[in-house]
Specification:
mainly alpha, about 950 residues, 5-stranded parallel beta sheet, 13 strands, 3-stranded antiparallel beta sheet
Length: about 950
């Protein structure tokens, strides 16, 4: 029988941006992979036979090297075809179409992107180019000669494309997208200054000047530590612009018609650290110089400008702190118990439900080098003092600056009184504010005496001067001086008691108040119930004023209400009261006996607002979430009032926050639910939903037993049509899955799907599919893909990350490369919308997949990101799951002792859920390998050390080892 000739294929493409592939399939033979990679270094050019022999067999060519090469070429032609691998004396060449080699295609796409005029087209071209990378160029050969120079060049090409894509986000007016992209890119290449410049610019354009300055400070520290260099002129210029409060450059994007809704551009200008400082240069220098030598408290009467000065201090020293500045605004905090949660939220690491927030503050700040500004502390001074003392003992690298009307009274406190302005500075400030109100106004020889008298009678307090200066539109300085009361009690008395300090500014506010019409006074009194800013709709709900727009306009004109107008049209105008004006309004409301009535209206409005927006489902889910978060100060105030006066109303409010709690893992929501249940009051129809919220918090905190008890209690209370039933069933499914009871999890998930069609039911479907995959169901992949397609069709931006993650997770043990692609997409999508839960679990899986693929460096980076994420959110349940992956990673990189210590600590933690399925098999195999490498005795000693560590200590161990070179 004649021998069959081997089939010769016609190659479509060769891929070297990752593992070597031909037509999308891996090349099995390592030697053929190396030959193709060598030829792909110079596509179209002839590579001599002798050079190929040397490079194909770098450790020594076989005895008949040329014959062996000819044989290898024949094998390679079976993969790519004879046409593609051509014989050209004195050797061979890889002849492909320009786009048939992914490295060449990427370079071509870069050139086309540079030439593209339209930013949308440029973004598409750059995305197409970046999608060509599946890993490091030339993968297994990247660190060897002669591949190394080309691999380095292609890595630089990739980084140029990534930088250009981030710049294109800015060109399109999408600074938020650019920030999300650049934070990942900067972490991957911390010394690449162009990326730092882009990040600073993006943060500036996104209205986050503090974060922009922190990014500069972090870059300065990295350069100094690693290279002993200073930042370049471009980034220093950006820093100067942010410090000066210059607005970010406007972005004009030409409209481009697409099938999808256009992304909303964030055109907000970077906020100034505060009004211009007049007459405060010495105070600024004194406070700045005092920082770092114990807590600094800036004290003075209300309206003297403490907040303005503190913001300028923060802006001026931000670059001196590696981790920047955090400002915790305490004016909206109602009681001392709310101080620590407010600080934790300001830091951006909200912590776990059920955890003592007073302990969470030092936990999330430990090791950070930052300035913490505690603004407006006077009404919660005892709680602030306790917190500052705790930070001094546990976080020596954190500097504290507080503003208050009285000192904190803590050890080592450096009190810096802020007196009223000098005469000249007061006149200058009055003139500047008056000319802003009326451009025709100026201080002249004719009116200087009257202006000076006005400033004197107002005790030269900046807020009082601003209130009075606004009147220059309707009265002259002489008329104003004649109308003002004469009071200098503050200047005469050294006493810092609240009464005398309040009386001075109170007289100013009361004077402005008496100039109002009766209905303006009534509206202003009722607006005092708001904790923060508010919309016209909210104002209408609490004031019941027919001509609200006219009254609001009058109050804004008279500088008693401020208005923030969104000229871009992306949100409603928001109004706010100055703190002293709010305090005055509340006093008048109390005097009228109307406080309870108006506060009930406020709480009812908040509940109704949450009923309209609280169901985070559908294409506008992200908008609904933003609408809720914009009113968060009011939600907090409404729940606090309701808990004391109407627990059923507070419960109905908390019940609407179940979806928000899942997306953001906000600790306050879980705490509110726990407190309402602990109070023992009748929570009405919302009782089952409150148990559901509490169950969600217990699950995140790692207390699965408590979560199950809340689920059971809620299900007992829930009636047949209670909207909490599908949520409770979903939570039952999650808890069962964490405990390794896949059958029970699947049943509970199916129940949730049957009961509802909201967010919880869709998440229950994800849980059911995952439970099936973990149990070995071969149909789980198809089910996950169907679910992902269905949800993508709805355009729900908060659920697509979950279904994308699910579609990747079910492939983790079947097709790791495909799983990694899906999971990394989930990380990106979750980061864009702030879906904290799925972002964390996806980072855990990314770490595991990268580690299993042998990419330990990338796995370490994602592991650190995962640990920081769970550390910030306080989710112990998933934190321990992530640490299991870290233990595998450490072992894979040869750090057996640390892996054993970490494993020993994890085995004593129940809050990570039960080990089962593939996870259990991998960890059992890991322990066997460690025993073989270390010996049983050394393994047990390391495990005992890990078991002896507390929770934070175990996390710190993992972070330290991952950061080690």
């Amino acid at each position: 029988m004649a021998r069959l000739r081997p089939r010769v294929v016609d190659v479509t493409d060769v891929r070297v941006l990752g593992a070597i592939e031909v037509d999308g399939a891996p090349v099995r033979s390592a030697r053929v992979r190396r030959l193709l990679a060598l030829l792909a270094l110079e596509p179209g050019r002839v590579v001599p036979v002798d050079r190929l022999v040397d490079d194909v067999w770098p450790d020594g060519a076989p005895e008949h090297g040329e014959a062996a090469l000819h044989s290898l070429v024949a094998r390679a032609r079976r993969v790519v075809g004879a046409t593609a691998l051509a014989t050209r004396p004195p050797g061979y060449a890889l002849e492909l179409a320009p786009d048939a080699l992914d490295a060449t295609a990427a370079a071509g796409l870069q050139e086309r992107a540079r030439a593209a005029v339209d930013a949308h087209d440029r973004a598409s071209l750059l995305d197409e180019a970046l999608a060509l990378w599946r890993g490091p160029a030339f993968a297994e050969f990247a660190d060897e000669e002669p591949f190394r120079p080309v691999a380095v060049r292609l890595e630089e090409l990739r980084r140029e494309l990534e930088d250009a894509r981030a710049q294109t986000d800015l060109d399109l007016g999408r600074p938020g997208d650019a920030v999300a992209r650049l934070e990942v890119l900067v972490a991957a290449a911390p010394l690449r200054e162009r990326r730092r410049e882009l990040l600073v610019d993006a943060l500036h354009r996104a209205g986050r000047p503090g974060d922009a300055l922190a990014a500069v400070a972090a870059h300065r520290r990295v350069l100094a530590d690693e290279l002993g260099l200073d930042p370049g002129p471009a980034i220093r210029e950006l820093e100067a612009r942010v410090l000066a409060g210059e607005p970010a450059p406007p972005v004009v994007v030409a409209a481009k018609v697409t099938s999808a809704a256009p992304d909303a551009a964030n055109d907000a200008l970077a906020p100034h650290p505060g009004p211009a400082l007049i007459g405060r240069a010495s105070a600024l220098a004194g406070v700045t110089g005092a920082l770092g030598n114990g807590p600094v408290t800036l004290v003075g009467p209300g309206g003297v400008g403490k907040t303005t000065l503190a913001r300028h201090v923060a802006a001026s020293v931000c670059g001196s702190f590696a981790d920047g500045v955090v400002v915790a605004e305490l004016a909206t905090v109602a009681a001392g118990a709310e101080v620590a949660p407010a600080v934790v939220a300001a830091v951006g690491a909200p912590g776990a439900s059920g955890a003592d927030a007073r302990e969470r503050v030092p936990a999330v700040l430990r090791g950070r080098r930052l300035l913490l500004v505690l603004d407006n502390a006077e009404h919660v001074v005892d709680a602030v003092a306790e917190l500052v003392e705790r930070l001094a003992a546990t976080c020596p690298t954190v500097s504290v600056l507080a503003t208050s009307r009285e000192p904190l009274g803590v050890p080592g406190e450096r009190v810096r009184p802020l007196p009223p302005l000098t005469d000249d500075a007061a006149v200058a400030l009055f003139a500047e504010r008056a000319s802003a109100a009326d451009p025709a106004f100026a201080v002249t020889d004719a009116n200087r005496e009257a202006v000076t008298e006005v400033c004197r009678r107002l005790d030269r307090l900046p807020l009082a001067l601003e209130l009075a200066a606004a009147r220059m539109r309707v009265v002259s300085p002489a008329e104003l001086a004649a109308d003002l009361p004469v009071h200098r009690r503050f200047l005469r008395s050294p006493h810092r008691g609240g009464t005398s300090r309040h009386r001075t500014l109170h007289a100013v506010v009361d004077w402005s108040y008496r100039l109002l019409e009766e209905r303006e006074r009534t509206v202003l009194d009722r607006l005092g119930v708001f904790a923060g800013s508010f919309t016209r709709a909210a104002a209408r709900a609490v004031t019941d004023e027919p001509d609200l727009d006219g009254v609001l306009a009058a109050l804004v004109d008279k500088s008693l209400v401020t208005a923030s107008v969104d000229h871009a049209g992306t949100g409603p105008t928001r109004y706010a009261l100055l703190e002293t004006v709010r305090a005055h309004a509340r006093e008048r409301l109390d005097e009228a006996g109307a406080t309870d009535t108006v506060r009930r209206r406020h709480a009812e409005h908040v509940r109704a607002h949450l009923e309209r927006h609280g169901q985070l489902i559908g294409p506008d889910a992200a908008r609904r979430l933003s609408a809720i978060e914009a009113e968060w100060d009011e939600v907090r105030a409404a729940v606090a009032w309701g808990a004391e006066h109407d627990p059923a109303l507070a419960a109905a409010t908390v019940a609407q926050l179940s979806d928000v709690a899942e997306v953001r893992m906000t600790p306050e929501i879980f705490t509110w639910a726990d407190d309402l249940l602990a109070g023992g009051a009748d929570l009405g129809a919302a009782g089952a939903a409150v148990h559901a919220v509490a169950a969600g918090g217990a699950r995140f905190a790692g207390d699965l037993d408590r979560a199950e008890r809340h689920v059971a209690a809620g299900q007992e209370l829930a009636g047949p049509d209670d909207p909490a039933r599908p949520v409770l069933a979903f939570l039952a499914a999650e808890v069962a899955l964490f405990a390794g009871r896949t059958d029970a999890s699947a049943r509970a998930a199916a129940e949730s799907e049957q009961l509802g069609d909201g967010r919880a039911s869709t998440l229950a479907t994800c849980t059911r599919v995952l439970a099936a995959a973990y149990a070995g169901d071969p149909d789980a992949v198809a089910a996950a893909d169907d679910l992902d397609a269905q949800v993508r069709a709805t355009g729900d931006p908060l659920l697509v990350p979950w279904t994308t993650y699910t579609a990747g997770e079910v492939r983790a043990d079947r097709d790791p490369p495909a799983a990694l692609e899906r999971i990394e997409e989930a990380v990106r999508l979750a980061g864009e919308v702030g879906e904290q839960y799925v972002l964390g679990v996806a980072l855990v899986t990314v770490t595991s997949l990268r580690a299993r693929a042998g990419d330990t460096a990338a796995a370490a980076r994602s592991a650190l990101a995962s640990l920081e994420h769970w550390r910030g959110t306080g989710n112990r349940t998933h934190q321990w799951v992530g640490l299991r992956t870290v233990a595998e990673l450490l072992a894979a990189s040869g750090r057996d002792e640390q892996a054993a210590e970490l494993l020993g600590g994890l085995l004593t933690r129940r809050s990570g859920g039960a080990l089962f399925g593939a996870d259990a098999a991998r960890l059992a195999a890991l322990r066997d390998d460690l025993a073989e490498h270390l010996g049983d005795e050394e393994l047990e000693r390391a495990e005992r050390r890990g078991a002896a560590r507390d929770d934070d200590g175990l996390v710190d161990l993992a972070r330290e080892v991952l950061r080690a070179p």
